[in-house]
Design brief:
It is built from 1 helix and 9 strands, in the order βαββββββββ. By secondary structure, it is mostly beta strands. The termini are far apart.
Length: 155
Amino acid sequence: MVVQWVRTEWTKQSRGEPGATRRNAVPVGFALPHLRPAVHEVRLLEWEDFAPVWSKESDEIDRIALTLREDDDVLSVQLQDTMHATPRRWNRPSPVRLARGEWVRWQLNHRWQRPRDGGYNYLLTTLNLAYGSPGDAKVFLGTPTRHVDEQTYLR
């Protein structure tokens, strides 16, 4: 299994033009550095001009943010909403079931108020998860087998 978290964070500056055009051009999937099972994280921050920054890879899956259950070569994937930020999601989608060789892209967004100045930060979290060997380092650049889009309008 290969997991890629892509986290894009921005402020009100990137909500309108020209910042929104730049923000909307940010990728939600990246080519993998290798095909071994691993957890990768890429952060794209407005104040760093949305340049991708890769965190150190891990083999530990965040069991709080992600519930996985494998049964008869089928993987059940459920992304948990662990953010204490707007909007609260009371009705969540059912887990996604993947056969070996399939992958899911699961997205959700949030907004929270900064205590220091009262401004808002926004976050788009994208989970790309391939069950079994992805077979291609560019797998997350293509069309997912399953796509769960929990994005909603953020004021």
